[in-house]
């Protein structure tokens, strides 16, 4: 499948060997040279920056259980049906092609129908499935396949899509791809770009690396001939100027209002608490955890707008500052019930933060439920000393 090292300069080869040595405590057998070189290239072969990036990535994989996410996470049906995109075919050099009909993305409808964390997990699944496909195609074709071309179709894109909470989430997805799947993009074709595209691009540009921006190819509506220079017609769907009729591309569309979630019923849940978080203020809800392994769960909705939410912990036997278990960030809890849970590794005080300090004019009505579920110890296996001796009647 080719020799990567023959393509590297002497200094790059030395950097690769040093990088592997520095990370030997976390690397596994499948982390070959091709895997490591992606992180080095993403940080211009700066060893310290590359190592910090990869170590953060391993921590992120553990936090989101990424290694098992394809088997354990079942995305909400609304995301499967209405989040546009799909793999289909390959370019003339074997790179897989991802089609993204972004102009048909109803991000506002999706945010009102699914939790933000589920949307992010769904996109992680997309990336992990893409890498699984790389391995399948590499084995099938007998050559290294580890890059993608993207074709992003802006047909139907309008000012309605420039909804700030949706753009914030889209930028978070872009940052996720940049931070955790670096040097995967080979080329990005933008087709059917509308007049307002420069506005949209300016809003996402800060989240793109310079290397990614340099891979963007801007096309209008007459894109067919350019695409066919890079992609054979039998690999390109008919709707994009090719001859291929079979594909699994989801074209998205407007999410039906009946699929929206509005959090109704949480106030009637046993143990629920309703209160108001005033403008320019925050609410901290302390929860005492006495046993390691305890599960802390939460559900909440807001009325009047979103809030910033996070979970922090402090421990009685430590004099350290609070540590963020769920970093504080704004969530659309006024659209859909926000839920989550963590496993508490140590006893101590765990604090749920509901922060409205960013809002100058609007108070938020908050309804939340907190559950503390202590781990039940498994029964111990009896030893021979625990079992009374049997005597035979004579």
Question: Can you summarize this structure?
Answer:
The protein is of the alpha+beta class. Helices cover 30% and strands 23% of the residues.
Structure explained in plain terms:
With 394 residues, the chain is α+β, with helices and mostly antiparallel strands. The protein is built from 11 helices and 13 strands. The strands form 3 sheets. A 5-stranded mixed beta sheet has the order 1-2-3-4-5, with no helix packed on it. A 4-stranded antiparallel beta sheet has the order 6-13-8-11, with no helix packed on it. Helix 1 packs across helix 2 (33-42), helix 2 packs across helix 3 and helix 7 packs parallel to helix 8. It is globular, with a radius of gyration of 25 Å. 24% of the residues are buried.
Mean pLDDT: 89
Shape annotation = globular
Low-confidence stretches: 378-394
Please give the share of residues in helix: 25-40%
Question: What structural category do the secondary elements indicate?
Answer: alpha+beta
Tally the helices: 11
């Amino acid at each position: 499948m080719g020799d990567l090292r023959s393509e590297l300069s002497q200094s790059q080869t030395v950097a690769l060997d040093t990088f592997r040595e520095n990370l030997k405590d976390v690397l596994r057998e499948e982390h070959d040279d091709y895997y490591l070189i992606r992180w080095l290239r993403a940080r211009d072969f700066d060893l310290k920056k590359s190592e910090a990036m990869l170590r953060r990535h391993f921590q992120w994989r553990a936090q989101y259980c990424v290694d098992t996410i394809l088997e354990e996470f079942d995305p909400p049906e609304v995301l499967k049906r209405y989040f546009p995109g799909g793999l289909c075919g390959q370019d003339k050099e074997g790179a897989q092609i991802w089609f993204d009909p972004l102009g048909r993305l109803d991000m506002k409808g999706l945010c009102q129908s699914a939790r933000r964390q589920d949307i992010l997990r769904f996109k992680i699944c997309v990336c992990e499935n893409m890498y699984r496909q790389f391995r399948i195609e590499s084995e099938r074709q007998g050559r290294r396949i580890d890059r993608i071309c993207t074709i992003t179709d802006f047909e139907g894109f309008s000012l309605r899509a420039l909804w700030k909470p949706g753009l914030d989430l889209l930028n978070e997805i872009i940052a996720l791809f940049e931070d955790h799947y670096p040097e995967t993009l080979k080329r990005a074709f933008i087709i059917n770009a509308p007049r307002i595209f420069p506005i949209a691009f300016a809003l996402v540009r800060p989240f793109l690396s310079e290397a990614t921006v340099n891979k963007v190819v801007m096309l209008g509506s007459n894109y067919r001939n350019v695409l066919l220079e890079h992609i054979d017609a039998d690999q390109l769907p008919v709707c994009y100027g090719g001859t291929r009729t079979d594909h699994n591309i989801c074209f998205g569309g407007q999410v039906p209002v009946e699929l929206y979630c509005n959090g109704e019923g949480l106030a009637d849940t046993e143990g629920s608490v309703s209160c108001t978080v005033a403008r320019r203020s925050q609410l901290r809800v302390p929860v005492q955890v006495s046993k390691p392994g305890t599960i802390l769960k939460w559900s909440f909705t807001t009325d009047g707008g979103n809030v910033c939410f996070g979970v922090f912990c402090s421990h009685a036997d430590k004099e350290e500052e609070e540590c963020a278990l769920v970093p504080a960030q704004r969530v659309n809890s006024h659209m859909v019930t926000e839920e989550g849970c963590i496993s508490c590794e140590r006893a101590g005080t765990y604090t749920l933060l509901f922060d409205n300090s960013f809002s100058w004019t609007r108070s938020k009505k908050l309804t939340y439920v907190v559950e503390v579920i202590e781990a039940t110890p498994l029964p111990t296996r009896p030893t021979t000393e625990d079992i009374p001796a049997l005597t035979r009647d004579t």
